[in-house]
Amino acid sequence: MRNPNIVILGAGYGGIMTAVKLQKSLGANDANVTLVNKHSYHYQTTWLHENAAGTLHHDRTRIQIKDVINTSKVNFVQDTVTDIKPEVKKVLLEGGELSYDYLVIGLGFEAATFGISGLKENAFTINSINSARMIRQHIEYNFAKYNNEAEKKQERLNIVVGGAGFTGIEFVGELANRIPELCKEYDIPREKVRIINVEAAPTALPGFDPELVEYAMNSLEARGVEFKIGAMIKEVTENKLVFEKDEQREEIETNTVVWAAGVRGNSLVEKAGFEANRGRIPVGEDLRPEGYDDVFIVGDCALIMNEETDRPYPPTAQIAIQQAEQTAANLTRLIRGEDHLEPFEPDLKGTVASLGHNDAIGVVFDDKKLFGWSATAMKKIIDNRYLLKLGGVPLVLKKGKLNFFH
Ligand code: FAD
Ligand code: NAD
Predict the structure, then answer these.
(1) Does residue 361 form part of some domain?
(2) Where would I find the FAD/NAD(P)-binding domain in this sequence (predicted)?
(3) From the alpha carbon of 13, which atom of ligand 1 is closest?
């Protein structure tokens, strides 16, 4: 009898952790495990805002897949998935196709643009190494261009960030650190540059602890970030952003809009025919969509409900990693012929968000609030713990954030 084929799509938090766990729990003769990813590297999405602002080089964020995968146990295919065909148990790639007995989908998120006019064409999003690198270079290009034109254009120096959720807030925190450096480098007075964060809800970080939200806004405003709260973005063009606040239409002239105002699951998964809810696929407690016993979905493509609040759990790396560990354990059971799968129960440790390199906010262990240095240190501990799980001490030493005083 041939070995079953396990195919894992995407090497984000969910996909790569499933592969790393399977290479430990399965023997080479138990199954053929194949990991498919667009790039030769895994990246830590949770650091991309730093790469986009230019406060951290993207090579710190990416990890070569062959450095953490044992290629004698897991076959790595660098290719782009174009279609998933669950009815014939096949995955189509740009360069070929794969058949599976078990499929793990971990293709991550894409921006939700809510049909806003001009957004797709004119705004940047923070969702990959390539997109982060483009934002960094675009900002620098505009700073360089500013002093090379006879007519000084303010739109080159206005940076607008759409959404004050965690991504938007973390990104403006990095910009607040980076912009003074860029001003020095390009001979631009700091007061000429505007960093504007536009949020539709009545508060930044809606739903988060109000005391910490106030702390975050004070910290960011003190470093030159402007907030437009209760302001709904309506349109983006090449050189302006339009929003509505108190039923008034307002415009900001800008060449740089970074959209951080919502995510959805990768559209390939919806296209495959699974029933979807805003691009995320509802899965049962074994992380399989109803009617598909051979498909597991992990990370941002999966929708799981919090029974206590009757709302979906937010898509986070924390949950993606735990789902991967659970899925690898359940796949191992299936391969060994057991039919009882363990249910997935998220074990939420808290939320910590950076506000630049030396400030942060967080709530951990249910209700312990952190801010300032202790929150910054906690964020580094969380990041290093992930690297330890993924590649042991050598990976922490190579890519970790080990300087707790900067
Ligand atoms: P991803 O990490 O998005 O990975 C998907 C992978 O699939 C990528 O490697 C991609 O290249 C690959 N892929 C996509 N399409 C294809 C294709 N067609 N073919 C082949 N490969 C493909 N969460 C937290 O818990 N804590 C945080 O501090 C935190 N900070 C964040 C900061 C930022 C700036 C952002 C944007 C998000 C943050 N999140 C955080 C959320 C977290 O990053 C996501 O929930 C997490 O990345 C989801 O993991 P994933 O494995 O589902 O997908
Ligand atoms: P989000 O959906 O959490 O926040 C988007 C924000 O944009 C919301 O506040 C929303 O009100 C606002 N918005 C939506 N439409 C708008 C419009 N037209 N105009 C102005 N504002 C608008 O998205 P996110 O911040 O990208 O986070 C995505 C996921 O990643 C979440 O689950 C989040 O918890 C997670 N994340 C976690 C961290 C962390 O833990 N440090 C950091 C980043 C992201």
Answers:
(1) no
(2) 5-324
(3) 51
